[in-house]
Amino acid sequence: MRIFRYIIRKQKKQVDFSRRLLPMIGICCGILFFAACDKETIPAEEFTGRTQTYQLIKGSEYDISGTITFEEKVDLSTRITISLSGTSGDIFHPAHLHHGTVDDGGEMAAMLTPVDGATGKSVTELTALVDGAPISYAQLIIFNGSIKVHLDDAANKDIILAYNNIGSNPGITSALTREITLCKMK
């Protein structure tokens, strides 16, 4: 009989222990589940690390200059970032990629995101030209082209705020007196 009581007592202790342990295990699992859901997913690296930067030269009486940077993305497209100093206000300055040098007057190859006058910044994700032809970072850094940033897209669209050649064209290093051709579109 003593053995029987011992076995019953032992089983009762195991049941009591299980009743206390199971809720604790459930709470711990719930905490771990919600903690894992709260963490932001770490994105895969977006860029390859390859970049090319060009100076943008003052193009008019406005004291505006800056840089344009091409960054290769892992999908081989290009993020184009324009950073200008000297801009202000709530105006947006159109920016274009053109075929040929700034002196050639080449056709527009791509419309870039306009530069925000308040920040002097523009970011464009470029995957194709205006004619629909795809363009990769590798093609862009050897592209026979130029960049022009305009004052506006209305009455002052002929005023070039900043410019330079890119790709296979030799870059311009100073704002010498030069005739900058106006933008042409097909």
Indicate how many domains the architecture comprises.
Answer: 2
Q: Strand arrangement, largest sheet?
A: 5-4-7-8-1-2-3-6
Rg over CA atoms, rounded to whole Å, is 31 Å
CATH superfamily of the largest domain: Superoxide dismutase, copper/zinc binding domain
By CATH, the topology of the largest domain is: Immunoglobulin-like
Total number of beta strands = 8
How would a textbook summarize the main sheet? 8 strands, antiparallel
SS field, number of helical segments: 2
Q: Residue share in helices? A: 10-25%
Shape: elongated
Stretches where pLDDT is under 50 for at least 5 consecutive residues are none
CATH domain class name of the largest domain: Mainly Beta
- Distance between the amino and carboxyl termini: 104 Å
Order of H and E elements: HEEEEEEHEE
Mean pLDDT: 82
What is the structural class? alpha+beta
Gross CATH architecture of the largest domain: Sandwich
Into which percentage range does the β-strand content fall? Answer: 35-45%
Defining key terms:
Immunoglobulin-like; 186 residues; 2 domains; alpha+beta; eight-stranded antiparallel β-sheet; 8 strands
Please, could you describe this protein's structure?
The protein contains two helices and eight strands; from the N terminus they run αββββββαββ. With 186 residues, the chain is of the alpha+beta class. The protein folds into two domains: 1-42; 47-167, Sandwich (Immunoglobulin-like), CATH 2.60.40.200. It has an eight-stranded antiparallel beta sheet. β2 and β3 (78-85) form a beta hairpin. The longest helix is centred in the N-terminal third of the chain and has 37 residues, at 2-38. The mean pLDDT is 82.
